Amino acid sequence: MKKTVIYLRQSLNTDKQPHSISMQKDMALEYAEKRDWIIHEVYDEGNRSARKTTLDERPQLKRLLNDVETGKIERILVFKRDRLARKVQQYIEIYRILKKYKVDLHFTADNEPPPFEGAASEFIEAILAGIAEHEANNIVQRLIYSKIPLIKKGLWQVGSPPFAYESKKKKKSDSKEEDEEPIKELKEGESNLRHIPDKVKTVRTLYSEVDAISTDIVDKRDFSFFCKCLKENENLASLTPKQIWDIIVQPLHIGKMVQRLDGNEYSIDNEVTQTLRILTYEEEGLWYKANDIVKQLDVPESITGEKSEDDEGLEEELPMAKLEHVLRCGTCKEPLIAIKKVYKCKTKTCKNAPKINKLDEEVFQRVWAYLIKKGEHQWGKLKEILEKRYGEPFKARITYLDNEISLLENKIKSHFQQLLKYPSEDNQEQLSYLVNCYKEKSKELEKYESLHFHNKQFLNHLDKKETLDLISDINLTEIQKQNILSLVKVVHYHRKKTPDIRCLIPTYRGEK
Ligand SMILES: [Zn+2]
């Protein structure tokens, strides 16, 4: 017998996401009970972020898809689309697998539109998943905005604390999330960092050694030689050149806290940050002197470099990798996987590694240009294709529901008359049954109308002359771009060659 199963996943942490695992589970169980389904298994992913982790890093989903592919699963109950995947392409990939193995997908959240059938389904699913992804980005934005006031108070918010400091809050040992819990127990004016006494000593030693360093050494301008000389002091022997640099330039040692978030730099100097001083007011000269000295040295970029970019590891600074899952290496035919800022070929020795932003933009421009070109020369034909493909199923469903609803309206009217004439429990029951049907159908109609509206909006972007003219300076949102890119079926990438694009729009085979 094929199984009915539940998939659960919570993202971010409990504070920011009201949809806890147990709530999702209750909803799913209730949904199943109403339909007399027996739940055979629960795949509980815990709180892994779908946005952060690839399929490989979500063992329960991987196991579930394996079970799907071996024909064990009949239906899956999940809270919302975004529980399966936060990225459009990944969602579509999962959606395809479920479709292929004829697995029924059920969303248990009240306001989640049901999965779509028919020709337009994949496109609509892409739009809906796009909305889910958009929400995920908003969550990241909200997280950023919630941090700014704390940063301005002088609390350390971004990345791990500098050398010689540690966070007062103990990290939950069982949580893999990088995000720390908000600090609640801090008093006004109290810092969320504290000194590590041993390391404070190291820092102090470092500044006084730099103070004492001879001008001969500085004149050589060689940073690694400079470090070598400092490391002759046994208290500094274990420091790496990178650590030496980071300590010297760290303004927190003189009570100033500098943090970078979402492209902005916040430099705070207040009573909170002043408590974190390592050098006293009188010793402040040592800090400035050390900084003057290192400025005279040739320091490799790997040491001074934009360390903040890598260290912060803030997701929103990484590109969205819109083409992952449709990208293939033109040489080895292997998929290209998004790693930080580039797509890398699965074959380790292969050098095909385009920059995500660049390639996404290039492919987008070409698909968009193709749509525009098509729009200019064969507008009627293109519109026909798109409308037929994406619009018809909605119209059909809406017409059907409209009919059903007006039939129900008439029935309700006559039953109401009936009930007035012959008040009986039977008649009462029948009437309330009809009213319930009416409510459900109206709700469904509302969903379809809203989807139809989104769909039409998308198509409208294609039929506005002004939009066509904007090709040279496109200011579409990331989501709109994503929607357009969801028309891409596969892209073969080869260095020095133009990417070979296949689209879902039937007539498109590359440009020209
Ligand atoms: Zn390759």
From TrEMBL:
Q: Which SMART domains match?
A: Resolvase
* Annotated region described as Disordered, given as residue ranges: 165-189
Q: Keyword DNA-binding on this protein?
A: yes
Keyword DNA-binding in the entry? The reply is yes
UniProtKB keywords: DNA recombination, DNA-binding
Q: Which SUPFAM superfamilies match?
A: Resolvase-like
Residue ranges annotated for the Resolvase/invertase-type recombinase catalytic domain, each copy included: 3-154
Supply the Gene3D superfamilies for this chain: Resolvase, N-terminal catalytic domain
Identify the CDD domains for this entry.
Ser_Recombinase
The domain of life is: Bacteria
Q: Which Pfam families match?
A: Resolvase
The protein in question is named: DNA invertase Pin-like site-specific DNA recombinase
Q: What organism is this sequence from?
A: Fictibacillus barbaricus
User: Which lineage is the organism of this entry classified under, starting from the top rank?
Assistant: Bacteria, Bacillati, Bacillota, Bacilli, Bacillales
